[in-house]
Amino acid sequence: MNPAQPFPRRAQSRILGKGEVQARRDADMTVVPGLATEPSMVRPSATHGALWVAGLLLVTLACLASLDVVPALAGGAAPAQAHGTACSPCASPQSRYPESAPSPSQPLAQPLGLAQCIALALRNNAGPAAAREGLAIAEAQHRQALSAYWPQLTAASTQTRLDRDPVFVYPEDSFNYTVDMGGGPMTMRTTVPERRIRLADRDIGEFRADLGLLLYDGGRREARVREAVAGHDAAAGEARLTSLQLVHDVTTRYHGVVLARALRDLGRETVQRLEATRDVAEHFYKGGSQRVRKTDWLRAQVGVLGVRSLLAELDSNVELAESALANTLGLPWDGQVRVADTELPATPDPGDLDAAVADAYRLNLDLVRFDAGVRAAEARLDDATGEYLPVVSLFGTLSTVTNAYDGGLVAEGERTHGAAGLTVELPLFEGFRTQARVEEMRARLRQLAHQRVLLREGVALRVKDAVLQERRAARQATIGAETVAAATESRTLTERAYREGLVDTRELLETQIYEAMVRAARLRALYEAQAAAAARNLVAGTEILEHLREVGYGARALP
After folding, report:
1. Which residues cross the membrane (predicted)?
2. How many contiguous H segments (helices) and E segments (strands) does the chain have?
3. What pLDDT does residue 4 have?
4. Which residue has the higher pLDDT, 251 or 183?
């Protein structure tokens, strides 16, 4: 029934057969089986019974409201909109409430399964793209470290204009010399006046090329290359971890959409049942029946209004869950996506705890990144130790001068010069800086060794927590299935008993509300089992991505 239409105030006063019930459901009727006949006997009801039913209703509302499956829309997180129905154990009859109004943007043409949503997120979400840029940065840093093995060649050109031509001032000089001209030696004194010799024109151009080749630096060059390689490994682990985190988010939010829609459908079905009960009670109460009292009608009316209020929250939860999934898939804020699954899958097998922990030790990307950090710290220690050793390098220089003057220092044949040599540099004293740096690096390595122990224990605890959560959820889902079957049978029998006048309205309302509670609890257990499995896969490392590579989803987006 459209919510804009008034709810019926009357119900048929005869028992419906199974075929008629289905026909009425298909025709969008509101009568449920076994609620349309006047009871021949009604047990006495008391005020405390009404209060007990109201309390039970509040508990039901709290239980359903607590099933909030919408993750927080934190920065960097990712959301979308999807459509689904209830799980088969909680499948509801045709709803009288219309679907939520579509957003202005056009939805995707075909419903998407979980693997397709993951592939779409890996292609569209900005997180993996940013992580791949970090990997590109690490690769560039590695190439920078390798450049130390190549000769270093530089060229420079300088053009200078002086305020005057450079000159060489030859000072005045006097000297004596003796000349023997046959008549005996004769001493003469000669004075050379000061002279100013032009060396070059004031416009001087110089072109210079320098070549250097490092021969030995105490192992520091190799250490920096190893540090860059470790940084690349850490960046690769970060990129894969980002993709795994995205897979985890898509998985939980995909199942969150399915759960939110199943709870909404369950709420609508519960409202239908309570409305039918209220309408029957109202029909007999206003028809003058002495076996159905006004308190019965009021009790049913309270239940209807309470669940209607909760239904508004459930509708909002569906919209939020779909928005969260759309954002995770990298769609616009008003984008829509339809999910293909209409019911939550069965609880996965958590497997052996020891095997899960061993796999996590082997594949966990946090441990991979940490080990890369340890290798980088070891390389930095070698770099610091290399400062004790000498640095040996070859050098060569070639320079030429351009000048308008042909003489002095820039005469033809004197303008080009070259030089080559060997440099040995040995640090003698730096105020104990190198020693302090070496001690710092060794302390960091010892610190990392202790932190790795803590990280391994943390990984094991995370795996254990996820496995225990899976086992608990699996047990709850198994017990919930039995409970749902029992609650459904109890409600059916209570409706028949109500039809025969063997139970009162309060007991009928209790069975209807309790059935909704246990069905909601089982849905929650199924969702929590999937969330725990996703958390275990996130800790374990690479299984999901390897599976996606096999099926070909998002291969271009995978690091």
Report:
1. none
2. 11, 8
3. 36
4. 251
pLDDT at 390 over 80: yes
Phi, psi angle pair for 338, to nearest 5°? -105, 135
Residue 443's CB is within 10 A of a number of other CB atoms, namely: 10
Residues composing the chain: 559
Write down the H helix ranges in 198-293.
220-286
Contact (Cβ atoms closer than 8 angstroms) between residue 322 and residue 331? no
Query: Which tokens in the block code for residue 256?
Result: 């969150």
Residue 558, φ and ψ in degrees, nearest 5: -80, 140
Question: Cβ(93)–Cβ(269) under 8 Å?
Answer: yes
pLDDT digits (tens, 9 = 90+) for 407-439: 888 888 888 999 999 999 999 998 999 999 999
**DSSP letter, residue 540:** H
pLDDT (mean) for 201-224: 93
169: three-class secondary structure by DSSP: strand
CB 385 within 8 A of CB 438: yes
Q: Number of C-alpha atoms within 13 angstroms, CB side, residue 376?
A: 17
Instruction: Name every residue whose Cβ is closer than 8 Å to that of residue 219 and which is 6 or more positions away in sequence.
Output: 382, 385, 386, 389
Distance CA 278, CA 285 (A): 10
d(CA 530, CA 253): 10
The mean pLDDT of 517-532, rounded to a whole number, is 92
Query: Greater confidence, 260 or 185?
Result: 260
Determine the Cα–Cα distance for residues 559 and 131; give it in Å rounded to an integer. Answer: 9
C-alpha–C-alpha distance, residues 27 and 12, integer Å? 15
How far is it, in rounded angstroms, from Cα 473 to Cα 2? 37
Q: Compute the average pLDDT of residues 303-320.
A: 89
CA angle centred on 71, ends 70 and 77, rounded to 5°: 130
Q: Which two tokens stand for residue 515?
A: 């059935």
**pLDDT tens sequence across 538-559:** 887 644 445 445 444 444 444 4
Q: Between the CA of residue 444 and those of 1, 379, 450, 494, what are the distances in Å?
A: 69, 12, 10, 71
pLDDT in the model for residue 79: 33
Chain center to CA of 204? 62
Residue 518 has pLDDT above 80, yes or no: yes
Nearest residue to 541 via CA among 145, 249, 248: 248
How confident is the model at residue 409, as a pLDDT?
84
DSSP result, 79-112:
B--------GGGPPPPPSSPPPPPPSSPPPSS-B
The alpha-helical segments, DSSP class H, found in 195-219 are none
CA distance 281 to 457: 61
User: Do residues 426 and 232 touch, judged by C-beta distance below 8 A?
Assistant: no
Rounded Cα–Cα distance for residues 301 and 409 (Å) = 112
